[in-house]
Design goal:
The structure holds 2 protein chains of 2 kinds. Helix content of chain A is 70%, strand content 0%. By secondary structure, chain A is mainly α. Chain A has one domain: Orthogonal Bundle (ABC transporter involved in vitamin B12 uptake, BtuC). Chain B is an all-alpha fold. Chain B has one domain: ABC transporter involved in vitamin B12 uptake, BtuC (Orthogonal Bundle), CATH 1.10.3470. A two-stranded antiparallel ribbon of chain B has the order 1-2. The radius of gyration of chain B is 19 Å and the shape is globular. The two termini of chain B are 26 Å apart. Classes of the chains: A mainly alpha, B mainly alpha.
Chain lengths: 342, 319
């Protein structure tokens, strides 16, 4: 965070007096996801100590692939959360992506690139429409995305016409299957793709004017508008990006699982939101970034690996997820008291 | 037209009421026996969980927050009753009903404390609670457990000529009606409209918020009982279906997500509209996938209409 235009101002009220070390330390902890890194390291250490057998390339690859899928699915959600909204249409986009990968690219034999382009255009277009509607009519994205999500899901299932047995083509499956290789190295390309997305997103959010305008719109809509940020364009673009990214995530999810089902998108909505929240991105705040979501996704995947390998069930990992979300956010995602908002 | 618009703007639920009436007429055209006395108790019993989950979503939205954990709370109440209370011999109505309602209200209160005292964002707090409740329901009853004969069957059938579902909906309605006689509801609406102004006017917004979420939890508990009445087994898998349905019903009924505007009547008509839409399309032989499409489309159109044409003039440029 080198640009200071958007960080909280009162920190440097008296430049001659340096704040106490503890205050500076706390500000630093809030500013960088240090806590998340610590948690990830601790969980990884715990996993390796309790189950030494897990430290082999195959297991590590599979953990990373699952993390990548979750992080990819949560990418658009991160942007929408920073803008101060919530994209409940994600399961619909993901379902459409899996449909394109399995039925269109797989069964009909359409080239994978074309299927990818169609997904990006359709999901991006629907997302753009959502963003525009929400901005134009000042309605909450929550309901509009909920309705659109149901509509996309319905339309996709109608197009699929009951055929859930197709599988994506080999070209797509090699991108996400555990045996895949990247430039000769023994890990599937999706890990590299998500890493590159992370770097790209960091550059976009922190090093471009568009990224700063995006943060400005999320933090204070009116102030951004008065500063001549075209908020309509920001909202439209963010929701379009959310749709397109979730659709692409759907393609990879289908490639990883080698198939799809009617409800494949739903777990990714709430787990993706959990990854965003555990990472520490907050609704409409400067303290939100995709790096945090990557860490959040890694935390959740490690956690569920630990839980499942200790003989607990998937259901109990949900309980732990819930507690973790509440604990992490109450540590530093608390809102201001009403008396401070007069 | 000039006379009609102000009417819609005066009553937030008018649009949902109109939609429900149109859909009811269409339903009667497609299947004339839709309202026959023989079918009525069954129809109302299937409708009751929709309506009650819609009710449960409303108080927290009115307080300017949101509660996405009411659907899972309803299914959790259902699992709690079928998989724990009945096997433990606590299945009598005078034991089970208070326990279910107390647990549900307690979980609602916990949500309220997380939002009002710990000051978490409402979406965050209730998402965490949603995970907890879904996990708990799955832990209690991974697979559906069939319920033996029990008192909830009354709510699926009828008591004399009164359909049982009217009781569950009626109890929730009566609670709200009674609360409207107190200062609670006006304070709730004031808090939702602007928590800063309400706080400045001396409203104890912490208590109001906690009470709002508690009330939502209580309604979700009643929804759990109504759900048990029709499914007569534990259905932990229904959690995600109901999670967003209640929200849709409340919002379609004209309750503003910004808070401070709307009420239980809106949620009632919203839920009835969604239910009638599904019934109509099913009866006309439309594929289930297209029903979902239509539901989504109606939701988006309803919300946009509510925010533009039907919104009160004063508020149109507010946000």
């Amino acid at each position: 965070m080198s640009s200071d235009t958007l960080s909280p101002a009162p920190k440097t009220q008296a430049p001659t007096v340096r704040p106490r070390p503890w205050t500076r330390f706390r500000a630093w902890v809030f500013e960088v996801p240090a806590l998340q890194v610590l948690v990830v390291l601790a969980l990884a250490a715990w996993l390796v100590i309790t189950i030494p057998a897990i430290a082999n390339p195959r297991s590590i690859t599979s953990i990373l692939v699952i993390t990548s899928l979750l992080a990819l699915a949560a990418m658009g959600q991160t942007l929408v959360v920073i803008l101060g909204g919530l994209d409940l249409a994600a399961p619909g986009y993901i379902l459409f992506g899996t449909f394109m990968a399995a039925n269109v690219a797989g069964k009909l034999g359409v080239p994978a690139v074309v299927a990818l382009l169609i997904t990006v255009v359709v999901c991006g277009g629907v997302g753009a429409l959502i963003g525009w509607i929400c901005h134009r009519f000042a309605v909450q994205p929550l309901v509009v995305t909920l309705g659109t999500g149901a509509a996309i899901t319905g339309a996709t299932l109608f197009l699929a016409d009951g055929d859930y047995s197709s599988a994506p083509p080999e070209a797509l499956r090699s991108l996400a299957s555990l045996r895949g290789t990247t430039l000769g190295l023994p890990f599937p390309p999706i890990i590299l793709i998500v890493l590159l997305c992370g770097v790209g997103m960091w550059l976009f959010l922190n090093r471009t004017a568009a990224g700063r305008r995006f943060y400005a719109t999320g933090i204070n809509f009116r102030a951004a508008q008065l500063a001549r940020v075209r908020t309509a364009a920001v909202w439209t673009m963010v929701f379009a990006a959310s749709g397109a990214l979730a659709g692409v995530a759907g393609i990879f999810i289908a490639s990883f699982g080698a198939g799809w089902s009617q409800t494949i998108g739903e777990p990714y909505l709430f787990s993706g939101l959990a990854a965003v929240l555990v990472g520490g991105s907050i609704f409409g705040s400067i303290r939100g970034s995709y790096t945090r979501t990557l860490l959040g996704a890694l935390t959740l995947t490690l956690l569920s690996t630990i839980i499942v390998s200790n003989g607990l069930t998937e259901a109990q990992s949900r309980i732990v997820f819930g507690v973790i979300i509440l604990a992490v956010v109450s540590l530093y995602g608390r809102e201001r008291h009403v008396r401070d908002r007069f | 037209m000039n006379r009609v618009l102000p009417l819609f703007q005066r009553w937030p639920f008018a649009f949902a009421l109109l939609l429900a009436l149109v859909l009811l007429v269409l339903n009667l055209i497609v299947s004339p026996s839709f309202l026959s006395p023989a079918r009525l108790p069954g129809t109302l019993a299937t409708l009751a969980p929709f309506v009650l989950v819609g009710f449960a979503s409303t108080p927290s939205i009115l307080a300017g927050g949101i509660d996405i954990s009411v659907g899972p709370l309803a299914t959790f109440s259902n699992c709690l009753f079928v998989a724990i209370l009945i096997p433990a011999g606590l299945g009598n109505w005078h034991l089970a009903a208070p326990i279910i309602l107390a647990v549900a209200a307690g979980i609602g209160a916990l949500n309220g404390i997380l939002v009002a005292v710990v000051r978490l964002h409402p979406v965050v707090a209730t998402t965490g609670m949603l995970f907890l409740l879904v996990g708990l329901s799955l832990t209690i009853a991974q697979n559906p457990v069939a319920a033996p004969n029990n008192w909830t069957e009354v709510f699926a059938g009828g008591i004399g000529i009164v359909p049982g579902a009217l009781l569950t909906i009626g109890v929730a309605g009566l609670i709200w009606f009674a609360l409207r006689r107190t200062a609670f509801v006006s304070n709730l609406l004031a808090t939702g409209e602007s928590d800063v102004s309400a706080y400045g006017s001396g409203v104890n917004i912490k208590a109001i918020r906690i009470l709002a979420y508690t009330l939502g939890g209580l309604f979700a508990g009643i929804a759990g009982i109504a759900l048990t009445a029709i499914v007569q087994s534990s259905q932990s898998s229904l959690a995600s279906t109901y999670a967003l349905l209640g929200l849709a019903a409340a919002v379609l009924g004209g309750t503003s997500l910004a808070g401070g505007r709307g009420g239980l009547l809106g949620a009632l008509f919203g839920a009835v509209s969604i239910y009638l839409l599904q019934q109509l399309l099913t009866a006309s032989g439309v594929a289930p996938s297209l029903i979902q499409f239509a539901y989504g489309a109606v939701l988006v159109v309803g919300v946009v209409l509510g925010a533009t044409l039907l919104a009160p003039r004063l508020k149109r440029n507010a946000s």
